[in-house]
Amino acid sequence: MSIIREIQTARILILGCGNTLLGDDGFGPAVIEELEKNYDLPSDVHAADVGTSIREVLFDIASSEKRPAHVVLVDTIS
Predict the structure, then answer these.
(1) I need a labelling partner for 78 at 20 to 30 A (CA). Which of 27, 30, 51, 71 fits?
(2) pTM of the model as a whole
(3) Residue 24's pLDDT band (boundaries 50, 70, 90)?
(4) What is the rounded distance in angstroms from the CA atom of residue 30 to the CA atom of residue 60?
(5) Per-residue pLDDT tens for 54-68?
(6) 74 φψ region: left (φ > 0), alpha (ψ -120 to 50), beta (else)
(7) Residues 16, 32: contact at Cβ < 8 Å?
(8) For residues 21-39, average pLDDT
């Protein structure tokens, strides 16, 4: 499913941010991978690895007519 469709259909959107090539910076994508492998998320909850494109995704959310009720950003600060 595309991120635009996820934005428009999700009640809760979980976004994993980071670059998997830079150690701790890959925490967000690792969390999304864990959620997708080991948890059965409800149909209105979407988890997406957005890598380093979080700015574009947040812009898409801000400009969308239908937005999630909640957006969870998963990132790390080193």
Answers:
(1) 71
(2) 0.87
(3) low
(4) 23
(5) 999 999 899 888 899
(6) beta
(7) yes
(8) 88
